[in-house]
User: Which sequence fits this backbone?
């Protein structure tokens, strides 16, 4: 496992972390299997786990508490998130801050997460949605400063709306944001335009989420795919998006190097960016953990291959969670 420095701290975090959204009790999740997968990740050196209160109303947080209750190894860095008070994803600029992140809500949800996790502090607390319309509002700024001063959080971050990677840069310039979480993968390369340069300028960490584009970049998606009722993918891959996604994945197949899988290529592409601190694929089975974490070996992709992947950029604009 290769480790990268989390900006503004002395943390050394696994460059391939662990996303726990899929363990929140959604279709196909199984707690015992999830725990086995996370235990395997710990054994392989993964020390960064990303969760949120919204993942099953604290379910994934409580699973992490089970996981770490008997852990006697090195410190494991936990990141969680404050859900929007109005329960709406994504955030919109016309929402008032008091509807989404009033200071008492930020504090109350942080304490709930601490209770779920069974810890006195969390390494990274994030706001789960964002609009830069609130960037200059001193209320969220004071709330963050209070949480840090009281030792309830060590660092603070913002998880930005899907396909709106620049809609956080004003907040970054307040100096209060230590990390930003953003969708970044072979298709979604827009963070490289403005966000990543700003993060490098301001020494802000980057958590790259959705490295497999909700599963399409594993190569397992089919044009006739159907999903259980309530499954997030039924919304994400609705209508023409499913057909076009499958076609685009098909065009990637010829560039996957011999001896490499498409998921491995997807992870290695994300890790090519020096702006990325860690990426957090969801992994609900031990075999997924073994396959994904094996990509953290320090090997670089050939420059010509990286350039060819630039041609697979897909700029989507319909903002969904």
Assistant:
């Amino acid at each position: 496992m290769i480790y990268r420095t989390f900006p503004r701290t002395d943390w050394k975090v696994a460059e391939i972390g662990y996303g726990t959204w899929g363990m929140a009790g959604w279709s196909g999740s199984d707690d015992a299997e999830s725990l086995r997968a996370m235990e395997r990740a710990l054994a392989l050196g993964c020390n960064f786990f990303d969760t949120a209160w919204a993942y099953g109303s604290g379910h994934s947080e409580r699973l992490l508490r089970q996981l770490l209750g008997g852990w006697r190894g090195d410190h494991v860095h936990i990141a969680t998130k404050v859900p929007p008070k109005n329960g709406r994803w994504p955030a919109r600029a016309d929402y008032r801050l008091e509807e989404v992140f009033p200071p008492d809500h930020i504090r109350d949800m942080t304490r709930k997460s601490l209770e779920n996790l069974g810890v006195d502090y969390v390494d990274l607390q994030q706001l789960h949605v964002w609009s830069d319309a609130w960037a200059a509002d001193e209320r969220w700024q004071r709330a963050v400063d209070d949480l840090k001063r009281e030792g309830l959080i060590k660092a603070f971050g913002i998880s930005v709306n899907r396909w709106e990677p620049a809609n956080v840069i004003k907040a970054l310039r307040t100096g209060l944001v230590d990390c930003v979480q953003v969708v970044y993968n072979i298709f979604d390369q827009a963070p490289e335009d403005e966000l990543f340069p700003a993060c490098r300028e301001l020494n802000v960490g980057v958590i790259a989420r959705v490295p497999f584009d909700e599963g399409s970049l594993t190569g397992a998606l089919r044009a006739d795919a159907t999903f259980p009722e309530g499954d997030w993918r039924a919304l994400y891959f609705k209508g023409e998006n499913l057909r076009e996604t499958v076609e685009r994945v098909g065009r990637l197949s010829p560039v996957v190097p011999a001896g490499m899988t498409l998921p491995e290529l997807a992870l290695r592409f994300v890790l090519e960016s020096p702006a990325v601190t860690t990426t957090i694929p969801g992994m609900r089975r031990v075999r997924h953990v073994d396959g994904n974490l094996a990509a953290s070996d320090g090997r670089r992709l050939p420059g010509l291959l990286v350039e060819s992947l630039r041609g697979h950029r897909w700029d989507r604009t319909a903002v969904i969670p």
In short: The domain at 3-217+262-310 is CATH 3.20.20.100 (TIM Barrel). The chain has a mean pLDDT of 95. The CA atoms of residues 169 and 242 lie 31 Å apart. The chain has twelve helices and ten strands.
